[in-house]
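User: Reviewer 2 asked us to show a designed sequence for the structure in our supplementary figure. I'm pasting the structure tokens here. Could you produce the per-position amino acids so we can include them in the response letter?
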């Protein structure tokens, strides 16, 4: 049962700026590179809003908190940000962390726009306070499973670590593949060395190995071990969670990191807005922006439109989710109620299965479109 909503952001903001809380993983064990890209998108979005006059003449201010991939830290940050008078909270990359943030935001009556986390069950019960831009895990990972079947890879091994997110992904894959003749075998990386995992892959006759594990470790060590095992020369290595999206992956693994398909939430070709924002993000990051950076920019675009149209009252912001219509970098953004999803959901951003071209690892190839 929810506690009564806390006072609206407008009653705390002091009239000088409109504050937005931002949750971002900026230190280990968080995925720091993803956090850096998400923050770059958020900051660029805020800069552009302020360059266009802000929110009714008031500047938009981003109040950033580092979650470090810690759910308790994220929940505490939501509480702190609520006390600081933010109109809404945004961001987060890690699904388990976003789930904790969403639960706290729901309990406090603070609007939360989740930028990048995909876990279907972001909240235990349906809530009016939370909306999400990233596609639900069940949507994206079913598309990935279809790609595997289309590529003739029906005997799937998943290298796993204990996590609600990885367990949920394994269940999505198994439920989607089993009726279509596919099988999923779980290999616990806490119990198997990378070399022992390679032996198990041979014994199981796996045609694909999916990395449902953290980055850089144990993912990097597993890829090196499998790539170095001649018995597994024909094995497809995949990473549906998107580890190869970031430049750090290519830097650590070089050629071994190419040819590993992952999910990417970008269209094959961006429109004019996406192209313009992409160039700005590239300049800001000093490298090609990931889809996570675009998610950050889109987050601010949505919230700025809501704030201009409905003001800074928290209940009014939460009540506006079903009426949002914003042109994002990856297409028109609208939120709706989606079966089995407890939050307001953009259904859906474009989903592609891509990999790094073995002949040119800095180039991404589209292998399958959802």
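Assistant: Here is a per-position design you can include in the supplement:
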């Amino acid at each position: 049962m929810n506690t009564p909503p806390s006072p609206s952001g407008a009653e705390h903001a002091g009239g000088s700026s409109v504050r937005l809380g931002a949750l971002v993983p900026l230190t280990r064990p968080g995925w720091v590179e993803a956090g850096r890209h998400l923050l770059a998108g958020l900051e660029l979005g805020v800069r552009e809003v302020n360059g266009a006059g802000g929110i009714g003449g008031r500047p938009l201010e981003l109040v950033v908190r580092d979650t470090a991939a810690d759910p308790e830290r994220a929940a505490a940050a939501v509480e702190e940000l609520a006390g600081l008078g933010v109109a809404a909270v945004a961001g987060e990359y890690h699904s388990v962390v976003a789930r904790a943030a969403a639960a706290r935001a729901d309990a406090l009556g603070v609007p939360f726009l989740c930028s990048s986390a995909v876990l279907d069950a972001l909240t235990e019960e349906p809530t009016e306070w939370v909306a999400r831009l990233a596609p639900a895990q069940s949507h994206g990972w079913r598309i990935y499973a279809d790609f595997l079947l289309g590529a003739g890879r029906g005997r799937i091994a998943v290298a796993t670590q204990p996590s609600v997110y990885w367990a949920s992904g394994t269940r999505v894959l198994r439920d989607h593949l089993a009726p279509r003749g596919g099988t999923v075998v779980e290999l616990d990386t806490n119990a198997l060395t990378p070399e022992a995992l390679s032996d198990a892959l041979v014994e199981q006759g796996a045609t694909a190995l999916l990395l449902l594990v953290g980055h850089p470790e144990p993912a990097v060590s597993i890829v090196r071990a499998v790539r170095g095992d001649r018995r597994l020369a024909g094995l497809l290595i995949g990473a549906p969670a998107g580890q190869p999206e970031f430049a750090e992956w290519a830097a650590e693994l070089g050629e071994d990191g190419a040819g590993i398909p992952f999910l990417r939430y970008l269209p094959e070709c961006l429109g004019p807005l996406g192209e313009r924002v992409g160039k700005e993000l590239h300049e800001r990051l000093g490298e090609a922006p990931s889809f996570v950076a675009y998610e950050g920019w889109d987050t601010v675009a949505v919230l700025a439109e809501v704030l201009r149209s409905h003001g800074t009252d928290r209940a009014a912001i939460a009540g506006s989710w079903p009426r949002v219509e914003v042109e994002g970098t990856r297409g028109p953004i609208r939120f709706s109620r989606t079966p089995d999803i407890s939050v307001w959901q953009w259904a859906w951003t474009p989903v592609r299965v891509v990999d790094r071209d073995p002949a040119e690892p800095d180039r991404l190839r589209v292998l399958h479109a959802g």
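For the response letter, you might also mention the following. The CA atoms of residues 90 and 113 lie 5 Å apart. Residues 1-14 have pLDDT under 50 and may be disordered.
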